[in-house]
Prior knowledge:
- Pfam families: Vinculin.
- Belongs to the vinculin/alpha-catenin family.
- One of its GO terms (cellular component) is cytoplasm.
- It is found in: Cytoplasm.
- By secondary structure, the chain is mainly α.
- It has 24 helices and no strands.
- The radius of gyration is 32 Å and the shape is flat.
Amino acid sequence: MATSPCSSSGVSSSSSSVLGADAGLEIRTRSVEQTLVPLVSQITTLINHKDKPKRSDKTLQAIQRVGQAVNLAVGRFVTVGEAIANENHELKEEMSVACIEARRAGETIAHLTDVANLDHPESDSHITIFTDKTGVVKAARLLLSSVTKVLVLADRIVIKQIITSRNKVLATMEQLEKVSSFQEFVQMFSQFGNEMVEFAHLTGDRQNDLKDEKKKARMAASRAVLEKCTMMLLTASKTCLRHPDCESARINKDGVFHRMRLALEQVIEIVTDSRPNGENEIAPISIYSGIKEFKNKVEGLRENLYFLSKENLSTMLEVILEHTEDFTDSAYTSHEHREHILELSKQAKMELEQLVSVWMQAQNQKTKDLMEDLEVAILKTCQCMNDLKKEVHSAATSLAADLLKYHTDHMVLKALKITGVEGNLEAVAEYTCKLSEQKEQLVEMCRLLRHVSGTEPLEITCIHAEDTFKVTGPQIISAAETLALHPSSKIAKENLEVFCEAWESQLSDMSMLLREINDVFEGRRGEKHVYLSLPRPGKHNASLKALKPVKLDTEEQMKIAKLGLELHLLTSNVDSETEKWEDQENEIVQHGQGMSSMAYSMYLFTRGEGLLKTTQDLFHQAEIFASEGTKLASALHAFSDQVHDDDKPLLLLEAEKLISMCKQLQITAKASVQGKSATFTKVDACILKTRNVMTLLCQLLPLCCKLLRKNKAGNGCLKPAPPWREDRIQTGTNAYTPERRAETFGIKSLENHVTNMTFLESK
């Protein structure tokens, strides 16, 4: 649909009618729309003044000021546009023409509004806004058209940046797919991580800027797939490298790469507003949207008896009733719900027959009695459709609530992990069948929820959830089969953990989605949803009050999400580095793994997941993270005392840097704040400083590992008697006892949960 420069929601409709339109331009983003708002406002002021009979000196001066302001603003704007044109040769010609038009229109408006120093602004000797009443409208049309064209062309450059970033990610993925050594993979994955962060920044900004809520929801779904698949790609690839002849490991890895490519393709479809081979997107039709449209047509008969045919109305009802078969044919719909839906479907047909009969009579003879009969028929038909809507909603949401409650213990996933480690192929096969059954149930649940979701963004979320269960189920099965074939493989075990966590995370998301669907049905929220970047209230412990979740504006949401993704990728890099150490009980490794686990929990917080439920939990976690970093610095100092190598000064310098950064993080985490803005600033600062510490950790671990390897090679970079090792041996056995792990998370009340948790650490 092409939209005029002035016809978007943020631009005055009255000025749109005055200023005209350029039908060739479409405004798809809020940034373009909002840039035009003040310009339209100023031009509307000028146009409204040209017809006012009274023109005081003050009014004339105001008109001139506005005209000059418009011209100056356009001049600055055009200068930027010309600079963009010079940097992007493929758009230079179009951009230059638009800039010339805009500058000319701005100068014309300045000339027409130069009236403050004239004794008779209506004099024909000087053409002004008052004498040339159509001139200012023409100039305004040209100005808005050319400025919009410049903005839309500049927007193409943003799209080009996203496409270029996607191409870089794809190229690196192809290389990752072909690597044959672990060392080469680690190097390529580090590059891949940086490219994914850049892509996440660009697409996050784009998602935030999109006007179309449906496209925004599709973009969010694709970006969620890419984010979750990043960790899957890491563990699946490592498993394949460790077990190159394992068919199930290869299938598992191929599935991740395929899903990421599809998600990358969908992002490009959204930003370019195109589909492969020129296909048109077929929007899924839900029962809710069908009933809404049907009722609108029926109620429209009150105003116009001739605007549609009876065949049209009958077809619409047939389509709705065909969709109700998704419920009546489902093995998971209760007998009671099935009977009620069938009864209401039958009643809807009868009510429509009665309505059509009265409607046809009213077309031939518009008497008072017939019009009253028509009104009754309209009310009865609409009431029947409302009852049908309630019944399918009840059927879908009660099924979802029951399934989510039944699967909340994740018994099948736990059994797969246990039987996989035991190498019990027969038991793994048995539980994979049960997981397949569970997958079918959850896919059916998503399909039914889509019919009653109530808004297009929620419909898309249901479709995304359905796809996630369809894909993740087989991936868990292939990961479990790999572990069963290699029961002693720590990386195969970790890989299965990652896919199981993705399944559990999607189930958790379904609970939130179900609440949102119920909120829409009960009228507790409108089309626009206030998304929360921070989690909902939760008790920290008995002595603390539950904190209210902070509602962040869109810019804040995107900022914290970007930092979270960077933190996620850094934890993957740290895990890869710790895996290189032969001695996994080394104190440096232990502290590094602990910090990585805590950083991962802080990343989950940015998504509203995990054990950290309130901002207070996050701040407490940051304190403990900083404390763990200080302990690591002490271990590094002890290690450096044994080093006879040129790298010793660098090691000490990095250790001091670590101490300083951890102190700053502790100060930030302990600082008291009040109010929404200050709380977000503190959250942002804590995550930013945690990210900086993790970046330093990525540099420290390979340095220490290199020094240890030199010692093993007999280069004598370490002294023969290392007291720091004795200290480690004495404390290493209980380094990760339940008590220590609870302290690491910094939430004593969650000790039991943490004891049973398996972190995403490289084994």
